[in-house]
Specification:
This protein has about 280 residues and is an alpha/beta fold. Helices cover about 30% and strands about 20% of the residues. It contains seven helices and twelve strands. The strands form two sheets. A seven-stranded mixed sheet has the order 4-5-3-2-1-11-12. A hairpin with a 2-residue loop joins strand 4 and strand 5. Helix 1 packs parallel to helix 3. The longest helix has 23 residues.
């Protein structure tokens, strides 16, 4: 049996456990096949909004929680920064439960000495005029697009075609959504400059990316973990401090992570979003 992929830090956001569109089985694949010294959960891990409307909690959702807790029991550090869909947990900031530290924000220092502010990102909705994709009003329409996405993905799989997200494609083709993303990223970068940190790690908008943004002549790092309803991505920090977005769909398609529950060797495989590894 080959060994697990090992990172210094793994950042996960927007799992949306409890929502019908959550790809919990793929989250479970990822958590089983990867290990880290520190795991940082960057909000919307459990979707309280969706659970309040209708209960949708499968065994796979429960297994994800249990597997994360097992990482802690085996010695991994875990920090939980709640988002807007699991915002009830924010009242427990500063407390530790089952070895998991809850924080409203988190400052992470990379192996190469960079300081990154970690927060979910919904804090910026008021600044950028709340995108309809991410508001409570638009939540049900978004879930409908995810339901349609499941049908489309199933048809494509039977045809032997690679995974493709209808929800992500719709957002990429919507002018207002694209404008929102641009304003969101600029607002996050401005906060990094204001706080005197080297960059920001966030989630919230379901758009994985790593890039440098210039604000008033100063350059800051913007890193978004992505999500596990559309993109199935994680942000990882290698042992030398380098950050990378890992697309788990690509890993599964390659066959390297196909045997669920087995340890896999990913040391010789690098899956990146073009132009986003720094």
């Amino acid at each position: 049996m080959t060994r697990m992929a090992s990172y210094r830090t793994i950042f996960l956001s927007d799992l949306h456990l409890g929502m019908r569109g959550c790809q919990a089985e793929r989250v479970l694949d990822f958590v089983r096949a990867n290990d880290a010294e520190r795991w940082v959960l960057v909000g919307d891990i459990v979707d309280g909004w969706a659970l309040a409307r209708s209960w949708s909690w499968t065994q796979a959702h429960n297994d994800v929680v249990q597997k994360l807790l097992r990482k802690v029991r085996k010695g991994a550090e875990m920090v939980y920064v709640p988002g807007n869909h699991d915002g009830a947990a924010r009242q427990f900031a500063g407390l530790t439960f089952g070895g998991i530290l809850v924080q409203r924000e988190w400052r992470h220092t990379t192996a190469d000495g960079r300081t990154l502010l970690v927060l979910h990102g919904d804090e910026f909705d008021g600044v950028v005029r709340l995108a309809p994709w991410l508001s409570k009003v638009g939540a049900r329409a978004y879930e409908l697009s995810l339901a349609l996405n499941t049908v489309v993905a199933g048809v494509r799989e039977r045809m032997g075609k690679p995974y493709w997200s209808l929800a992500a494609a719709l957002k990429d083709r919507t002018k207002k959504a694209l404008q929102y993303v641009g304003r969101f990223e600029d607002a996050v970068a401005a906060l990094a400059l204001e706080r005197g940190v080297d960059g920001v790690v966030c989630g919230h908008i379901h758009r994985p990316e790593i890039r440098t943004i210039e604000v008033d002549g100063a350059r800051t790092l913007y890193a978004n973990c992505g999500d596990w309803v559309e993109n199935c991505t994680a942000l990882v920090e290698h042992w030398d401090g380098r950050l990378e977005v890992v697309r788990w769909i690509d890993v599964l398609a390659s066959g390297d992570g196909a045997d669920r529950g087995l340890e896999v060797d990913l040391d010789d495989v690098s899956f990146k979003v073009p132009g986003v590894s720094v």
